[in-house]
Specification:
- By secondary structure, this protein is mainly alpha-helical.
- The chain has four domains: 81-127; 144-188; 195-607, no CATH class; 611-714.
- It is 60% helix and 4% strand.
- A four-stranded mixed β-sheet has the order 5-6-8-7, with helices on both faces. It has a two-stranded antiparallel ribbon with strand order 1-2.
- A hairpin with an 8-residue loop joins β7 and β8 (709-714).
- α14 runs parallel beside α16 (383-397).
- The longest helix has 37 residues, at 571-607.
Length: 716
């Protein structure tokens, strides 16, 4: 039970700590009669002025922190040839599943050999994962500042009522933000600092330089040729630009119902990006916004690597994640995809760190990022399940009754804080449950399309395919992946298998809850893709499984750190370890570069429609005639989205479609007129020649192979 530190009643001023009044005692005494309630409010103000609560919290923070010793793995003094052999066989196994010449049976055999060698190396102390960071027993008697807590609840209720219209305005937004700030302040405690390991100034400079270098390379991978890769938008981008345009016109929605419904974070973020960088309502604004979100994920991946290992593991995780094809592609598409890993990484970071250090502040931060993530991308809705699973795993591994009770209250803090942050969407969900859940229901059930078989069979098949996406096949969705290739490059994929095996071996030996959590997080984070039961062809999907990229690359980084540590601490051995790491990084970087900037780009261009060229024609017509009101595009099955050329021309709110059956409607409009239509649409050509005998027909030769289109110009 949360206890309140304020001496809210005179009769409780001399109560000993062992008999400190509970919230239930407070409630009974306060609600007894009106005088009791008045005295309570007065005593709160007096207590706040005397600063008694702050003193109590400061005293608690001053208590000693107990730091447990980490379990350092033994390292063999001999050269780790078994570990290197295991790695080489894993690389060979992964090479055999690289497209186009894929040999699953040979790859499986090589992986079995590599795992056998890995177990041998593990038993001979040649390859161990880095020691888990030490547990810290930070004191937390669950004190709270009652007055800010009460006001936070009051403000949240006001905001909740005001959000009933489904719009953000200055009033409800102010009360909403104030409620979050007050709630966080009411729970926040000042904690003692734990002394870090001693490092020389030279070591710090070298280490900071390596981190900055890895971050710089990662930013290069995120931003390089962003204007050209991907080259063209598709229909989802038209929907997003219209949503952003709606905000600019004053429609400050909490949830955007266009295109089966979307959360609001990306729309407001894109509006900010286009205002700051002056990029307008464009495809590039969408891409720049999501690329920046991908960059913002990188520091959390680094810290998460440290939380499951050490500084070096964090550096390895930062680099591998920064250059990886998977998070890079979903960050540069221009849709909400990177919001899943962006908010998953800090949510998992603060949850794990909070459970390790027993620091309440980490759970407050965890709740904030959990709530923010729910405003981002709908697959993030699986993360609350991960939080529940983490708490259960933690509770099953601790023996102290007091620690279990504290863990329950930490869980309550996460839930309450996240609900406060989620409040606008919660209100929308209550008022419009059909809209809020429609997109997920179309994939999970037969609302839109019948399930192709029994749900449990489809689920198991999807789960199998989802688990294989890291090393075998990441699906067939060409707009956000390179179809039918592994989600990881050769180096990261091989290390991933080694890391999974090492996590299982260490968990069997040490039974640490963090190892089991990291293992369990992978299938849980894949669920948004796996649960596409009505459309199993959409699984696996890099975008819906994006959160699993964080956990997967952490596993690979831990394996690489363990391999490097196996070389020992001698100077020559250290040079060999860092040399091997450098070679692996170079191979991985070139492999990922080739996948994104060559293979993915080429494949995307082959599938994308050349709406930018149509937008160029519209712009040229405007330059020549001063208007675009008499420009139309005649739709054709499976051809361009007729809204996108207008986006390229700087007209984001117009659909240029004029259907074939309605061509006569253009007759009353004064010339000049321009029609664009698909090069195989002979019927449209016939109709236009009948309507406008003096019109001029030209074929636009596209830079995209096989995607020429016709331009029919009427000048009189």
């Amino acid at each position: 039970m949360v206890r309140e530190n304020d001496n809210f009643m005179e009769q409780n001023q001399n109560t000993s700590p062992e008999h400190e009044p509970t919230v239930l005692d407070l409630y009974k005494s306060v609600t007894k009669d009106w005088d009791s309630f008045s005295n309570f409010i007065r005593s709160l103000w007096d207590a706040r002025r005397r600063g008694e609560l702050n003193q109590a919290l400061a005293q608690e923070a001053a208590q000693p922190v107990v730091v447990e010793q980490p379990i350092e793995p033994r390292r063999a003094a001999t050269f780790p040839w078994r570990a290197l052999a295991a790695l080489m066989f894993a690389f060979a196994a992964q090479l055999f599943v690289e497209p186009p010449n894929r040999q699953f049976a040979v790859s499986l055999l090589f992986y079995l050999v590599s795992i056998g060698l890995l177990i041998w190396a593990f038993r001979r102390d040649e390859w161990h994962l880095p020691a888990l960071p030490p547990a810290i027993q930070t004191p937390d008697s669950l004190l709270a500042r009652l007055l800010p807590l009460l006001f936070s609840i009051l403000f949240a209720l006001i905001a909740f009522i005001d959000f009933s219209e489904g719009l953000f305005d200055w009033r409800n937004t102010l009360f909403w933000i104030a409620s979050i700030v007050l709630l966080s302040y009411s729970l926040w405690v000042k904690t003692p600092k734990v002394e870090a390991a001693n490092e020389t100034s030279k070591q710090k400079w070298i280490w900071n330089g390596l981190v900055i270098l890895a971050l710089g390379i990662s930013i290069f991978f995120r931003l390089h040729r962003l204007d050209a890769i991907p080259v063209e938008p598709f229909s989802d981008h038209a929907e997003k630009i219209l949503d952003v345009y709606d905000i600019a016109q004053g429609q400050t929605k909490i949830f955007f119902e266009r295109n089966t419904g979307r959360e609001a974070f990306q729309m407001y973020w894109t509006l900010l990006v286009l205002k700051v960088f002056g990029t307008g309502f464009s495809f590039f604004s969408l891409k720049l916004g999501t690329a920046l979100l991908g960059i913002f994920t990188l520091p959390f991946v680094y810290l998460l690597g440290k939380e499951f290992g050490n500084q070096r593991a964090g550096l390895f995780a930062l680099f591998l994640f920064g250059i990886a094809y998977w998070p890079n592609v979903i960050s540069r598409i221009g849709l909400r995809f990177p919001l899943y890993p962006l908010f998953l990484a800090p949510t998992l970071l603060f949850l794990v760190r909070g459970l390790r250090t027993r620091n309440r502040n980490d759970f407050i931060l965890c709740g904030i990022f959990l709530g923010l993530g729910l405003h981002g991308y709908s697959p993030f809705r699986i993360v609350p399940l991960l939080v529940v699973a983490a708490m259960l795993i933690y509770l099953l591994h601790i023996k102290s009754k007091e620690a279990r009770q504290q863990a329950v209250w930490w869980f309550v803090i996460v839930v309450v804080v996240s609900l406060f942050v989620f409040l606008p969407l919660l209100r929308y969900w209550i008022g419009h449950p059909d809209q809020f859940g429609y997109r997920a229901l179309t994939r999970l059930s037969g609302v839109e399309s019948p399930l192709p078989g029994p749900a449990w069979q489809v689920f198991l098949s999807n789960l199998y395919n989802g688990l294989l996406m890291f090393n075998w096949d990441n699906g067939e969705i060409w707009v956000n992946s390179m179809p039918h290739r592994p989600a990881f490059d050769v180096v990261t994929a091989a290390l991933f298998v080694m890391g999974i095996a090492l996590l299982i071996l260490r968990y069997v030996r040490q039974r640490d809850w963090r190892d089991l959590l990291l293992l369990a997080s992978i299938p849980i984070l894949l669920l948004p893709s796996v649960l596409s039961l009505a459309f199993p062809g959409e699984n696996p999907a890099l975008n819906r499984a994006g959160g699993a990229s964080v956990a997967g690359i952490i596993v690979s980084a831990l394996a690489l750190d363990g391999l490097a540590a196996g070389f020992g601490s001698g100077k020559r051995r250290q040079v060999m370890a860092w040399g091997l790491t450098g070679v692996l990084f170079i191979v991985s970087a070139f492999g990922n570069y080739n996948i994104v900037f060559n293979k993915f780009d080429e494949n995307f261009r082959a599938g994308a429609w050349n709406t930018s060229e149509m937008g160029k024609v519209i712009s040229q017509f405007r330059e020549g005639y001063g208007q675009t009101d008499t420009v139309w595009i005649v739709p054709y099955p499976h051809w361009v989205d007729t809204r996108l050329p207008g986006v390229w021309a700087g007209i984001p709110d117009r659909d240029f479609a004029l259907w074939q059956d309605n061509l006569e409607e253009s007759l009353p409009r004064p010339a000049p007129k321009l029609f664009m239509f698909w090069n195989q649409d002979e019927e449209t050509e016939r109709l236009l020649r009948e309507l406008y005998p003096d019109g001029v027909l030209n074929r636009y030769t596209s830079s995209f192979a096989g995607k020429d289109f016709y331009i029919f110009l009427v000048e009189e």
